[in-house]
Amino acid sequence: MRRRIIKLVHEGKYAAEVSVEVLDEDGPWSPYLSVEDAVKLDAVRKALRQGDVSGAAKHGRVFELLPVSE
What pairs with residue 17 in β-bridges? Predict the structure, then answer.
């Protein structure tokens, strides 16, 4: 069975919501991501780490995190 979920990727002062497909099958590794979705999450994480908001936004919604109080 396949289902779409939203994964949250957080790096520094940014976070991104990325839609991925989770594969639920009988087996010890279930549920798991496809290789393509795992690569997509890594690309978003790398883009956020480098401050490339537009690069990360190609794969999902990007948010800038601000502290509520110090």
Answer: 8, 61
Residue tagged 């991925």 (tokens):
20
At 37, give phi and psi (nearest 5°): -70, -35
Residue 61 gets which letter from DSSP?
E
**The pair of three-digit structure tokens given for residue 65, joined into one six-digit string:** 């995190």
Q: What pTM was computed for the model?
A: 0.87
Give the pair of three-digit tokens for residue 44.
Answer: 């978003």
Q: What is the mean pLDDT of residues 50-66?
A: 96
- 39, 47 in Cβ contact below 8 A? no
Average pLDDT of the residues in 50-62: 97
Contact 60, 17 (CB under 8 A): yes
Q: How far apart are CA 66 and CA 50, in angstroms?
A: 18
Which backbone phi and psi does 56 adopt, to 5 degrees? -70, -35
